[in-house]
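An instance follows:
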Amino acid sequence: MFTLSDIPIFLMSLFIILPIISIIHQVGHVFFVWLFGGRLRFSIGAGKRLFGLGPFEIRRIYFWHSFFQYEELKRDTTFSHIVIFLGGSLFNLLSIFIVNGLINLGIFSPHIFFYNFVYFSLYFVFFALFPARYSEDHPSDTMAIYDLLKYGKKVDPLD
């Protein structure tokens, strides 16, 4: 049962854990764009832009949403695009294994923070791999792969 004593954990999950997981997810995409020699831009959050540094920006509602765009891959193949779209989920899954491994090694102690980290990481992976269009411009990662395979659509160019 959810009680008032659970509110700090809820707020920690919403304002700290979800943004960390979102950043890990985006870093997965960024890594593979970099590996294949592309240019990119990614945002954490929704709404008005608060802060930007190079291709990275944080928006006002930083815990809500994240997205990335890329172009000009030096290794421009269907396989490279698929790997880029799966990169976020791969990094989320890798972070789950790292956190659980550090707990098993006794470096981290079991704590609700890590439980929520794993739980919300799996949540992120599920919705990234669930083929859906979250908005006209933001398909899930597997929907982007579907579009790539069916229509040959790669990505929208950077603005």
